[in-house]
Specification:
Helix 3 (about 70-75) packs parallel to helix 4 (about 95-105), helix 4 (about 95-105) crosses helix 5 (about 115-125) and helix 7 (about 195-210) runs parallel beside helix 8 (about 240-250). The longest helix has 19 residues, at about 195-210. The strands form two sheets. Strands 1, 11, 12, 13, 14, 15, 16 and 17 form an eight-stranded mixed β-sheet that branches. The protein has two domains: about 1-15 and about 270-380, Lyase, Ornithine Decarboxylase, Chain A, domain 1 (Beta Barrel), CATH 2.40.37.10; about 20-270, Alanine racemase (TIM Barrel). The protein has ten helices and 17 strands. It has helices spanning about 20-35, 50-60, 70-75, 95-105, 115-125, 165-170, 195-210, 240-250, 265-270, 300-305; strands at about 15, 40-45, 65, 85, 105-110, 130-135, 160, 175-185, 220, 260-265, 275-285, 290-295, 310-315, 320-325, 335-345, 350-355, 375-380. By secondary structure, the protein is α/β, with parallel strands linked by helices.
Length: about 375
């Protein structure tokens, strides 16, 4: 983290974003997608909705994947073209649906027949016709944390395979919706390309079954899910987009002219952001030492919520490494960023960096304990 060691005057805790890395990441995504003319990428706004970052991402030409009406509104405000915005979510409310219809977004990813019927009613009242992709639960296990697995039958997401043909038949009878595709998303932080291969094979099977009944859709959306290497933020700062897109190009049997969509969030933004915090105290127990930061679980929730790993580094010290539990000030035992973490000898006032916090960091921050929200700062790209 040499590029921020001189920024000792930043108010902490804060998020610090590497704009140059974000630009390089976006360039890599665009270069890989360009190999496959029918592939389209939508940035998953839920990963990080900071307007500065969204404007950079929209300027790169990516679309947006939204999961709330406010995300749709912010995407439009930040320059995303409405005809490149998709809107997913198992519980869209009436006002959110109206917002999306009035914005004339590309597509709703719809999760149930009751939802589709409500969209039809609201579209009729708005004088609109809603484009819809059916989110299908393919019963494919992403083999990741159970909180971020979304594609097996025990999850709340999507239309189950046994009900798919019935939903298609019923939806086609509704006058104010147009079925244009199928949508799949099986989970997050997936680094095994074999999981995506399995998804392709399952979608091929579903498509062929529907095709035999004369049903072919012009759009297939595979969601996102591509993971990053949290252990090596320096060595692997850009996710494996090459193998990710190549896997779908090789194993998905697309129909002629069928458009293929992806919704990537973490893999685009996670490594571009770090949480910076200062040490308040070093507390010595009988069996371990605690580094107590001014950042808490309200600032970065992932370790408490998912038991997620982030590489933690002391950038102020040149002392020999010691083992510490790195914790925050919140009155919760879950307020812990890492146990038995090897840090250079640490003292009050040292600057600690929690790496790869650009995704689901700032976006999930809260004011629990009436704490202030973390500030945000941005690097200036070097030219």
């Amino acid at each position: 983290m040499k590029e921020i060691t001189h920024l000792t005057n930043l108010p902490t805790p804060c998020y610090y974003y590497n704009i140059e890395l974000l630009q390089k990441t976006l360039e890599k995504v665009k270069a890989e997608v360009a190999k496959y003319p029918l592939f389209h990428v939508h940035y998953a706004v839920k990963a990080n909705a900071n307007p500065v970052l969204l404007k950079l991402i929209s300027a790169s030409g990516l679309g947006a994947d939204c999961v709330s009406g406010n995300e749709v509104g912010r995407a439009v405000e930040c320059g995303f073209a409405p005809d490149q915005i998709v809107y997913a979510g198992v519980g869209k409310n009436d006002e959110e649906i109206r917002v999306a219809l009035n914005a004339d977004i590309f597509c709703f990813n719809s999760e149930s027949l009751p939802e589709i019927r409500v969209i039809d009613e609201i579209a009729a009242a708005c004088g609109k016709k809603a484009r819809i992709a059916l989110r299908v639960n393919p019963n494919v296990d992403a083999h990741t944390h159970h909180y971020i697995t979304t594609g097996i039958e025990e999850n709340k997401f999507g239309i189950y395979l046994y009900d798919l043909e019935h939903v298609i038949e019923e939806s086609r009878m509704l006058p104010n919706v147009e079925l244009i595709g199928l949508h799949f998303h099986i989970g997050s932080q997936i680094t095994d390309m074999g999981v995506f291969r399995s998804l392709c094979l399952k979608v091929n099977e579903i498509q062929q079954k529907l095709k035999r009944k004369g049903i072919v859709f012009p759009h297939i959306n595979f969601g996102g899910g591509l993971g990053i290497d949290y252990n090596h933020p320096y060595g692997e700062p850009i996710a494996d987009f090459e193998n990710y897109f190549a896997t779908f190009a090789k194993f998905f049997e697309a129909e002629p002219y069928q458009q293929v969509h992806f919704e990537l969030g973490r893999s685009i933004i996670a490594h571009c952001g770090d949480m910076i915090s200062k040490v308040l105290y070093v507390k010595e127990g009988r069996n371990k030492k605690f580094v107590i930061l001014d950042a808490g679980m309200n600032d970065l929730l992932r370790p408490a919520l998912y038991q997620a790993f982030h590489k933690i580094e002391n950038i102020s010290s040149d002392k020999p490494e010691e083992k510490y539990d790195v914790v925050g000030p919140i009155c919760e035992s879950a307020d812990c960023f890492g146990k038995d973490v090897s840090l250079k000898g640490t003292a009050r006032g040292d600057l600690i960096v929690i790496h790869s916090a650009g995704a689901y960091g700032e976006a999930m921050a809260s004011q629990y304990n009436l704490r202030d929200l973390p500030a945000t700062f941005f690097s200036v790209p070097q030219h």
